[in-house]
Amino acid sequence: MKLSVLSLVLALSVAGSAFAAGGAETSSFGPDGPMVIEVFQWGPRDVAADDQVVAFINERLNIDLQISRILAREYTQNLEVKIAAGDIPDLFRLQRSFPQVYQNLYRDNYLANVSDYAQRQNLGNLQRWFTEPGVEEYAEADGFYRVPSRITPRGAVGNMLYRSDWVDRLGLDLPTTNDEFVEFLRAVVTARPGGDNTVALTGVGIGPLEGFTLGFTDALDWKLVDGEYTWVRTLPSYREGLRFVRDLYSQGLVDREIFTLNETQSRGKFVGGTAFIAFPHGGTWDRHPQYAALLAENNPDGVVSILDPRPAGPEGIVYGGFYGLADPWVVPKRGQREDMIERVVTLLDYVHSEEGVSVLLNGVEGIHYVLSDGERVTTDAHTRDIIPGLGHLFAMSTDYSQGKLDINETVNRSREIATQYAVYNPLSDVFSGEAYVRYIPQMNEVHEQWFTDFVTGVRDLDRDWGAYITALRRVGLDQVTQEVNAELQ
To answer: What are the φ/ψ torsions at residue 470 (nearest 5 degrees)?
Structure first.
């Protein structure tokens, strides 16, 4: 279970006391070698011990960069545990879904003003980054205490990967509506091309299934209804989207383990040859080439495609859109040595340089690729260190949307189609209203539990819908709605 906001506040207080007592003495700095910088983030795979991108950055900046990561779904909970234990990384990311974490850290004077350090050290790359369009939304009155990443180009991308070789083998037509989609899945389950354990649709948690509700609501998070912004997950049209998902589940067209799988397990079903459709965690910018490569290792004849455009619901074809900037990096200062903070900010400056971005997205020339007639020819080291469509894991510290603009023909076409039908959250990712920060995490937890119960049939969508709305009101729905309307109206 996730730590509560109150628990996090108490944890910060305890951790701050621990740092004041002895944090500086235990700071990772080798007297006879480079400064150790511990980084914590999420991502699809670990950094290899002999990673040559890290080796290059270490040599370039005279540091010892140590990157630990965890799956995105488990990240914030683990970060809060680290904070509570006083095991604080020197640099770490914050997820947009948990705005209270940043607000607590900032309010408790726990974070370094990165722009202040960048100015004092004359770090031009960071200073330029802070003037990029949209980045200014992440600033406080006196500067930047968080450095957002540009995770994607503005737009959207399809998220349903499917076995197109199975479609060809079974002679199926691609679905254009929800009704056709149901028959599409049913045909595969009946034919069982993956054997007795064939799964029609797999993924991670409620996110993949909630995507189907967009075709019923035509909105992301907040929708203007009769002059007032309403949380999409309380709309009657959202309930109808849930009904569609429930019916998929009740007919055996959804993986029974979808609510408990992590991405490694879900991906294993797809690349192992038992799942027909997979919703990878996050977008398919990097996942399509990754899943395709892994499937090819098990089945050279397997083909991975993206189901675009997605089937139309009552409101038509709808995708969830991205603004691009999100998930900022922060540098803790509580009890930390000044030279450590300065070095970490210097690292952030480097990865925002032209060379730094290139190294993180493409690797090191002569190690990860060689140039032939002006084109990059990749090596085995590239396959080990660089994630297709994402770059190096640490590329998430900067503008890694550049790597998503020319991944392969399938993904590029998906971006064109999905962006055409994209809807966007009217509320900024950095909105920090008091009620919003306080209650949204609790509202999300209530929604996730009830979503699962509605889909699995534990609760009835018609009989228990009122109780669901009441449960949301108990954890701040009305206060958040009022605050959001004050912001958006």
So the answer is: -60, -40
Q: How far apart are CA 230 and CA 214, in angstroms?
A: 15
Chain segment 370-380, per-residue pLDDT in tens = 999 988 999 99
Average pLDDT over residues 142-151: 92
Burial 307-328 (b: 16+ CB within 10 A, else e): bbbbbbbeeebbbbbbbbbbbb
Give the residue among 314, 325, 323, 282 at the shortest CA–CA distance from 425.
Answer: 323
Q: What average pLDDT is seen over the chain? A: 90
Predicted local confidence at residue 282, as pLDDT = 64
Query: Tokens 């790359």 map to which residue?
Result: 125
Closest CA to 190 of 172, 216, 211, 176: 172
* Nearest residue to 156 via CA among 16, 318, 30: 318
Q: How many Cα atoms occupy the beta-carbon half-sphere of 159 within 13 Å? A: 21
Q: Mention every residue, 6+ apart, whose C-beta is less than 8 A from residue 206.
A: 259, 448, 451, 452, 455
Contact between 354 and 457 under an 8 Å Cβ cutoff? The reply is no
| pTM, entire model | 0.78
CA distances, 421 to each of 139, 218, 453 (Å) = 31, 10, 30
Q: Which residues pair with 365 in a beta bridge?
A: 369
What's the rounded Cα separation, in Å, for the pair 484 and 489? Answer: 8
Of the pLDDT bands very low, low, confident and very high (cuts 50, 70, 90), residue 38 is very high
Q: What is the pLDDT of residue 83?
A: 87
Concatenated DSSP letters of 263-318: HHHHHHHHHTT-EEEE--SS-STTHHHHHHHHHHHH-TT--EEE--SPPBBTTBS-
Q: Give residue 317's Cα distance to chain centre.
A: 23
CA triplet 22, 24, 25: central angle to 5 degrees? 70
Q: What's the one-letter identity of residue 277? A: I
Most confident of 26-30, 294-298, 464-468: 464-468
d(CA 69, CA 333): 21
277-293 pLDDT per residue, tens: 999 876 677 788 889 99
